[in-house]
Structures are given as structure tokens and as C-alpha cells.
Design goal:
Elements: H1 12-24, H2 26-36, H3 43-56, H4 60-69, H5 85-88, H6 92-100, H7 113-119, H8 129-142, H9 144-148, H10 160-165, H11 172-186, H12 191-195, H13 213-234, H14 238-262, H15 267-286, H16 317-327, E1 335-339, H17 346-351, H18 353-356, E2 361-365, H19 368-371, H20 377-394, H21 413-427, E3 432-437, H22 442-448, H23 455-466, E4 470-476, H24 478-482, H25 489-492, E5 495-499, H26 505-513, E6 522-523, H27 525-535, H28 539-559, E7 567-568, H29 570-577, H30 580-585, H31 587-599, H32 605-612, H33 621-628, H34 632-644, E8 648-651, E9 654-657, H35 660-670
Parallel strand pairs: 1-4, 1-5, 2-3, 3-4, 6-7
Antiparallel strand pairs: 8-9
Helix pairs in contact: 1-2, 1-3, 4-6, 6-8, 13-14, 13-15, 14-15, 20-21, 26-27, 27-29, 28-29, 32-33, 33-34
Length: 671
């Protein structure tokens, strides 16, 4: 290596060395680029070398896409350490694209703009259509959240001058035409516009030597969907209209799965946004297929007491994407603790891990509620070993003997499990083991009861530190994240915390209106907006309202014989939430939040909740402290904890309940 990763002096030979390596062996050269760019003082050399290599390359556009997909460049500039670092730290490829565009972007929590300015004169400062296109790719990557949220508008045509600017480059015509097509698809707001979105000449997207064949294949499939919508609009036969719309609905569903699994960002996010917009148009304006011919009660798609799995698992793309980022690399990956209120969807996340990771990952479900009380550390580890053995046997891992209870003696509880992991290590054939431990807070109650020892937690920490393929995914209440006992610190100091909170407005809307792809009852926009406002995006309460609406519809239609529209209105939502049964059915969530506030280490929370309940518009902090009967300091601590736990939120200087239905429940409780 010709540079020091901590060096601050410019090394003139670095740029020449990197450029030579890129020309000799591009893949190895990109590995060196990934290493060198981590030092802010040497980024000028990386930028200069890449500029020369890009503009000397006979195929510069494919090169830019190789920068997006090369594994070394997908790594973070610095390894995320604390919760939230992954949002503030950039992957290498984003920094390189911005450097080519001569833009400084903050690459880590400690990035120094001064270093960039100091070394700017050493950079290759050419501004060309290629560098501007590199900058466009980086901006699209940066706007991932906007693309993933249906509520935020996105206009791809704002980049028209940039993607048209590379048309004369090899592969540039494909880029310009595909981005123009995606921009027109994103602009569709009605069935009429969707039907007109198809192109008469789609042959350009079927070329054999495409830069991004998977993107062009998706465009061809979207064009076919547009054909189906035209057939739907032009047909006079009810059956033909339904068949055309069904083809379009199924095609979009299949395409979304393929795009998620195969297409690289940023086009992945653009195509997924197009698919979701088109799905919403079909549902809102075209209706759901088959409603006129279906008879009998509506199958209730909303889930109350069981984990949501498969296509019924809606709205946790952000959490699943975070886990994929953490666990997609080779070698050591972090164990995680997933925490939040009861009924927030943590168990559903654990149950859907198997669908997101490939055959090289073995998911072991170890639910503490089902395990129940144990007699000792040895008893718990023996049961865990049995769960692991059963899952490994089911996945075809041969040669592993079934654990025997005598191999886990109470006087040496950890020896048996350590030997079990050693045997599995020699047989796993490269597979990674992810053990999901739900209801993990029950561990502490068993420690306090003397059935388990605190040493168990340190042993688990040592196990996943020793065996990189052994990963724990712990799930439990907010109290997990708050634990400050000495025996918790070693474990929680070695895992990554992932908070599971409310659904985004876009995800909540999808859960309400499309809990399953074949759900055939509509909602008014006002009804959807009211459900989101009442629940704040709390998934269990959304499911509860939807479940009750469908049950009520079935009762009125098929038990009472009423003729009614297959659409839920604002009045229907009001009827459901004001019924006496709603508090009973929502008790699991409401009482769970109340109980956690009651038993938290930070006192005064219940007084704050009672004081705030009569005020739907909220109270400023001093008035809330006075109404609670607590001093400003103690009330402030309680308010802070309630905000951290998503029970309260500050809006315009006033504190309000995050979930309006929770406020009403508290008010009824104290009245």
C-alpha cells in the first residue's frame, strides 16, 4: 500500500497508482479505491483517478453502474456503531458518485468539510455530462425515503437535462429513453393517463446488449400492464373488463417482487414507486376485480392476535431493509435487539425473516412465551439447542446429533451448548444461524426469580462474538432498551438496537386499503385519513378497526340482510371506534402502554397521561407539569420518557398523545 490510511499529506503517487490498478484489474482497483477513500485527506486522489478512468473508458455508463453494484463499494465509509449511525453514514459508492460530480456530502457523523475544501484544488474539476449523470444517480439514492413514501411527491423529469445529456455516450440512448419513460410512468395520476402511458414502439427496450437489462425488462412489463388497462377501459363485457384488470393487478404484484429481488438501486426505488402508484390508481379508480360476482361474507383479511406473514405482512419495509443492510455482508454481522410497545409488529418481523434471506440462512424461532418457565441456565440452553437441532435437521444439515439432556449439566451449564456450537460449526457448510428470541424481557423476570443467572447473558454475548455465523435477534418491550443493570450492559453493548414504531402514512394507507391483494371493499379517502389520524399509524389499532369494519359489514349484509355499498365511509369508522366493544378488543394495546408507563423506572408518567387526557389539542410543558401535580423537573423527565416511547409527541410547542385513541381510552378510564 502506498498511502497511510491516517496520513494527512497529499501523496502525488496515489492517484497514478490507483489509475494504473483500475486499468490493469478493475475489480481489484475498486477494492483499493474503497480502502483509500475512507481517508478524507486522500479522497482527492480517488476522485482524480476515477475521473480519468471514467472519461478514458470506452463504456463509461456501464462503469458507473458497476460502481453501484461492486460489493466493496456497497460498504459504509465507517462502520455504524450506534443506533442511527446507518442513517448518517454513507456507503462508498454514494460518496464516489458525489465526488465525480464535485459535490461534498457528509460521509460520516464526524466528516470534516474543511478537509474537502483544503484538498479541492488537487481534484480533477471537469464538469461533463458523465459527471452530472453520476451526481444524478447519487441524488436519487439520497432520495430513497421520498421514493418509498407514497405521500411525498416525486418528479423524475427534474433530471431531464442530465439524463438527456448522456444520450450520445455508448449506452446513453438507453439511459435517456428509459428515464424519460419512467418519468412519464411516475406522472400518471388516473386510469386514463395509465392507459395512455404505453408506447407504440417498445422494441428499443428489448435490445440484447443493454446496460441494465433488468430495468428494461421491467419497463416492457409495465407497458404490458398499460395494454391491459386500455383493454379494461375499451371492453363492454363485464367479464372481459374484470379479466383485464385482474391481469394488470397480478402483473404488478409479480413485477414488484422481481424488482425488489433483482434490480439495483436507484432504479429499484423508481420502479417500485411506479408500481405502487399504478396499484393505487387501479384500486381507487378501477375498483377491485371480481366484486360484482362474489357472493357470501367477505373473508376478513385483518389480523388481530397472530403474526402477519407472507403477503399479509405490510408496512415494515424500513425495518426489513435495515436488517438486510446489517446481515447482507459476509463474516461477522451484528446481533440485534428489536424493541417497541406491545402489538407494534415485532413478532411479525421475526416471523418474516425467512422470506428475506436466502438458503444460506437458517432461522430458529425461540419464543420465550412458548418456552415458559425454566429451571436453570442449563435447562434453557438445552431447549435452545433442541430448537436449533430441529431447524437444522429440517434444512438438511446432516451429521448433527440430537442434543441429550445429560450433556447440559446444571453444574456446568455452558459447556454442553459450547460443544454443540462447535459440532454445528463443522457441519453448517457456510450457513448462518439467526436465532429469534421473542418476548425476551421474560429473561429478566426469570433472573429475578432465581431460575436463570445473569451470567447467561454474558455467555450469549461470548457465543456470538466467538462464532460470527451465530446471530441473535432479540425482540421485546421498550424496557429492554432501558435496562441498565450491570448484567445487561455486556450484552446490550454488543448488539444493534432497532426501534419498531408507527407505520409511515404511506404504509398505513396500504395496510388499510389493501391488507391483501384480493381485498374487495373500498374506503373513502376521508375514512382512510381518519383511521391514520386516530391511530397515528399504530398497526394493531389499524388492524382492529379494519377487522371490526369487515365483521360489521358481513353481519349487516348477510345476517341482517341489508343491501349496502361495498365501501367504508367516515360514518362507518365513527360507529366502530365508539362502540363499547372497541375498548375491550383494544385492551391488549392500551393496557400494555399504560402498564409500561406505570412500571417504568421514571415515575410520574401516569400523572402526566391523566393530566393530558382531557386536552385533545395538547398542553405546553409548563402547563402539563402543573396539571400533573408534579414538579417541573420530575414532570419533564416523565414527559421525555413518554416521548422516547412514542406515547407523546411535541407539536408546535405543545405535547399531545401520539395515538388519539389512546388519549380517549385514558379519558374514559378516569371518568
Amino acid at each position: 500500500m502506498i498511502w497511510d490510511e491516517l496520513g494527512v499529506l497529499p501523496l502525488p503517487s496515489a492517484q497514478t497508482f490507483l489509475l494504473r490498478q483500475l486499468h490493469q484489474d478493475e475489480s481489484q482497483g475498486l477494492v483499493l479505491v474503497s480502502e483509500a477513500v475512507r481517508n478524507p485527506f486522500q479522497r482527492w486522489a480517488v476522485q482524480s483517478a476515477l475521473q480519468h478512468y471514467l472519461h478514458a473508458n470506452p463504456q463509461p455508463i456501464p462503469l458507473l453502474y458497476r460502481l453501484l453494484s461492486a460489493p466493496p463499494l456497497a460498504e459504509y465509509i465507517i462502520a455504524p456503531v450506534e443506533e442511527g449511525d446507518w442513517k448518517r453514514t454513507l456507503p462508498v459508492h454514494r460518496l464516489l458518485l458525489a465526488e465525480l460530480d464535485q459535490r461534498w456530502i457528509k460521509s460520516s457523523p464526524d466528516a470534516d468539510h474543511f478537509v474537502y475544501r483544503l484538498t479541492r484544488r488537487l481534484r480533477d474539476r471537469r464538469a461533463t455530462p458523465l459527471t452530472r449523470f453520476a451526481g444524478m444517480l447519487e441524488e436519487l439514492l439520497a432520495q430513497q425515503d421520498a421514493l418509498d413514501d407514497d405521500e411525498r411527491p416525486f418528479d423524475l423529469s427534474q433530471f431531464q437535462a442530465i439524463y438527456e445529456g448522456v444520450r450520445e455516450q455508448p449506452g446513453g440512448a438507453e439511459i435517456a429513453r428509459s428515464y424519460a419513460t419512467m418519468a412519464s410512468y411516475l406522472a400518471c395520476k388516473s386510469l386514463t393517463e395509465l392507459a395512455a402511458a404505453g408506447t407504440a414502439d417498445i422494441a428499443w427496450a428489448q435490445q440484447a446488449d443493454a446496460v441494465r437489462p433488468l430495468v428494461l425488462a421491467a419497463i416492457v412489463r409495465l407497458d404490458a400492464v398499460s395494454d391491459d388497462i386500455r383493454a379494461y377501459r375499451d371492453s363492454s363485457s363485464r367479464a372481459n373488463r374484470q379479466a383485464a384488470l385482474l391481469r394488470a393487478t397480478d402483473a404488478l404484484k409479480e413485477l414488484e417482487q422481481d424488482v425488489q429481488e433483482q434490480v439495483v438501486a436507484p432504479e429499484q426505488h423508481l420502479l417500485r414507486r411506479i408500481i405502487r402508484q399504478w396499484q393505487a390508481i387501479i384500486i381507487a379508480e378501477g375498483g377491485v376485480v371480481g366484486r360484482a360476482t362474489k357472493a357470501g361474507p367477505v373473508a376478513n383479511p385483518y389480523i388481530l392476535n397472530n403474526p402477519a406473514e407472507g403477503e399479509r405482512f405490510v408496512g415494515r419495509d424500513d425495518t426489513m431493509r435495515r436488517l438486510e443492510e446489517l446481515w447482507s455482508g459476509a463474516g461477522q454481522v451484528p446481533s440485534v435487539v428489536i424493541y417497541g410497545h406491545r402489538r407494534m409488529g415485532k413478532t411479525s418481523i421475526l416471523h418474516n425473516l425467512g422470506r428475506r434471506f436466502g438458503a444460506q440462512t437458517v432461522i430458529v424461532d425461540f419464543n420465550m412465551q412458548r418456552v415458559g418457565r425454566v429451571n436453570s441456565d442449563a435447562d434453557l440452553l438445552y431447549q435452545l439447542a433442541l430448537h436449533i437441532y430441529d431447524e437444522c435437521a429440517a434444512r438438511g444439515i446432516a451429521g448433527l446429533d440430537e442434543p441429550a439432556e445429560q450433556d447440559f449439566p446444571a453444574e456446568r451449564p455452558y459447556l454442553g451448548f459450547t460443544r454443540f456450537l462447535k459440532r454445528l460449526d463443522s457441519l453448517r457448510d457456510g450457513r448462518r444461524l439467526i436465532v429469534t428470541v421473542d418476548e425476551f424481557e421474560k429473561i429478566e423476570s426469570q433472573i429475578e426469580a432465581g431460575q436463570l443467572t445473569p451470567a447467561l447473558l454474558d455467555f450469549w454475548r461470548g457465543s456470538f462474538m466467538t462464532y460470527p455465523w451465530f446471530v441473535l435477534a432479540l425482540a421485546g418491550l421498550y424496557s429492554l432498551e432501558e435496562r441498565r443493570h450491570d448484567y445487561w450492559s455486556p450484552l446490550f453493548g454488543s448488539v444493534t438496537g432497532i426501534k419498531v414504531s408507527f407505520l409511515t402514512p404511506g404504509a398505513a394507507r396500504r395496510l388499510i386499503s389493501e391488507p391483501t391483494p384480493d381485498f374487495d371493499i373500498d374506503y373513502d379517502d376521508d375514512a382512510i385519513a381518519q383511521i391514520i389520524a386516530l391511530t397515528g399509524g399504530q398497526p394493531f389499532l389499524i388492524q382492529l378497526i379494519g377487522h371490526t369494519l369487515v365483521s360489521r359489514f358481513n353481519q349487516q349484509s348477510y345476517e341482517e340482510g341489508r343491501e349496502q355499498e361495498r365501501r367504508f365511509h367516515l360514518a362507518d369508522v365513527a360507529q366502530v371506534i365508539n362502540a363499547p366493544e372497541f375498548d375491550r378488543d383494544g385492551h391488549a394495546y392500551f393496557s400494555g402502554v399504560w402498564s409500561q408507563a406505570e412500571h417504568s423506572d421514571h415515575g410520574g408518567q401516569l400523572d402526566v397521561l391523566r393530566a393530558l387526557a382531557p386536552h385533545s389539542v395538547g398542553l405546553p410543558p409548563d402547563a402539563l407539569a402543573a396539571a400533573s401535580g408534579r414538579g417541573l423537573a420530575q414532570a419533564g423527565e416523565a414527559i421525555t420518557t413518554l416521548c422516547d416511547h412514542d406515547v407523546l409527541i411535541e407539536r408546535d410547542g405543545r405535547y399531545v398523545y401520539t395515538v388519539e385513541l389512546m388519549r380517549r381510552w385514558v379519558l374514559r378510564r378516569q371518568n
